[in-house]
Amino acid sequence: MSFRLxxxxxxxxxxxxxxxxxxxxxxxxxxxxxxxxxxxITPIEIAPLRTKANGKVEFYVExxxxxxxxxxKTIVLVNDVESLNDIDEARALASKERAEIRxxxxxxxxxxxxxxxxxLRSLARLDTIQASKENH
Length: 136
Prior knowledge:
Elements: E1 3-9, E2 12-19, E3 21-26, E4 29-34, E5 40-53, E6 56-69, E7 73-78, E8 81-83, H1 89-104, H2 112-134
Parallel strand pairs: 1-7
Antiparallel strand pairs: 1-2, 3-4, 3-5, 5-6, 6-7, 6-8
Helix pairs in contact: 1-2
């Protein structure tokens, strides 16, 4: 059985479709949402997001937000989201390396929070690519 998945970003509606399964990372770990899941509101972490519909698995990277599960509908409110096809692996690796260099510098001019955020986003992109390779 399917349920309605709605993914919203500050830019607007990203996706509205039927899925059979949704996997998303919360502060307590990865949870699966399927038809009949109990109502739930929980923060979600910057991490891969996976859906399954009609036997087809799709991967996304989401950049933090909130998961809201209702009886027949699940809403994912995120800061941003990218599909696997939109992720450039070379660019993600370069971004990871730049962020690590900035974080390893002991320079007061480095914006530590911004560098950490960049590192988290690049790692999530790379994790999404890796997860897709392991599940195909």
